[in-house]
Amino acid sequence: MSDDETVLTFTATVAALAFWGIWLTAAADTSLLVRPGRRLGAIVVTLAASLAVVFVALLTRADPEVRSGAGYILLFLAVAADTLALVTLVAPTLGLPIIDGFVRGRNAATGWAVVGLWLGTGLVNAGANIGRGDTIYTTLGPLALALGALLVLVAILSALTRSFRAVRLDRDVPAGMRLAGLFIAWGLFLGRGAAGDWESVGRTLEDFGRSAAAAAYLLVGGAIVEAALRPTVRHPERSWRWGIGPAVGYSIPAVVWALT
Fold first, then answer.
1. How far apart are CA 166 and CA 231, in angstroms?
2. Are 111 and 102 in contact (CB under 8 A)?
3. pLDDT at residue 162 above 90?
4. Cα–Cα–Cα angle for 170, 174, 175, nearest 5°?
5. pLDDT at residue 238 in the model
6. pLDDT reported for residue 89
7. Quick check: 34 and 106 in contact, CB under 8 A?
8. Are 115 and 42 in contact (CB under 8 A)?
């Protein structure tokens, strides 16, 4: 590794350890009366699973120099942890308060949505690490592009659904399941767009544009589904099937796209 890469690895690792140490401590610092144990466990497992997706991609599909270098693997895992930190910081402003909503508020719908958001972020990182490149910036550039697109899609959907009202206020678990499926599908689309051997900026933008367009179509579909299935006076509660069904429906085309 070059001196710049070593400095970046150190900085990214320290930032990730500092953020998650403080954040997880804050999440655990709550009254035992709300019985946070299982929810804290779910958070830790989801976080570990999101990083595990990236780790597997690094070991199996990354540039050979990355696969054989422990320093590079540490670097890109730390960057993945930092992107998860960024998403976690932004989530409450979009209507998905993780600590107050899920851990302390016992809102299972928010929990489902956060699982999807974190896994989607992990898939974006995994995709960006797939393929060969001349420098680490041929990974970090597409990653920044894909992560930015993911946050924009989430922000637009939040605006269309009044800050995920069905999840945040109505505590509608099927709505949380649908969001989880949608976020994971976006992660697959955008991760696929960021994947591949580096050729040029133009080719990268062209490939990513196709995946981003497909994800945007899914945004339209997701907004329509949420408008149709949101809790109403006539239908204040819906079966979990109305959550799992659309979530699977979102994921199938995303999986097919990622595998092509």
1. 7
2. yes
3. no
4. 60
5. 77
6. 96
7. yes
8. yes
- What are the DSSP calls for the chain, one per residue? --HHHHHHHHHHHHHHHHHHHHHHHHHH-S-GGG--HHHHHHHHHHHHHHHHHHHHHHHHTB-HHHHT-HHHHHHHHHHHHHHHHHHHHHGGGGT--IIIIIITT--HHHHHHHHHHHHHHHHHHHHHTSB--SSTHHHHHHHHHHHHHHHHHHHHHHHHTTTTHHHHTS--HHHHHHHHHHHHHHHHHHHHHH-S----HHHHHHHHHHHHHHHHHHHHHHHHHHHHHS--SS-S---THHHHHHHHHHHHHHHHHHH-
pLDDT above 90: residue 8 = yes
Location of structure tokens 């009254």: 31
Rounded to a whole number, what is the distance in angstroms from the first to the last CA of the chain? 33
Q: Which residue has the tokens 């079966």?
A: 239
What tokens were used for 76? 């890109």
Mean pLDDT of 71-95: 96
Give the pLDDT confidence of 134-155 residue by residue, as tens digits. Answer: 889 999 999 999 999 999 999 9
Six token digits for residue 177: 């399941």
pTM of the model: 0.94
What value does the CA radius of gyration of the chain take, rounded to a whole number of Å?
18
Other beta carbons within 10 angstroms of residue 168's beta carbon come to: 25
Residue 111: partners with Cβ closer than 8 Å, 6 or more residues away: 39, 42, 102, 176
What pLDDT score does 260 carry? 83
Q: What are phi and psi of 56, to 5 degrees?
A: -65, -45
What pLDDT, on a 0 to 100 scale, did the predictor assign at position 37? 84
Tokens standing for residue 98 = 């993780």
Q: How far apart are CA 132 and CA 136, in angstroms?
A: 10
Token pair of 84 as six digits: 């998860």
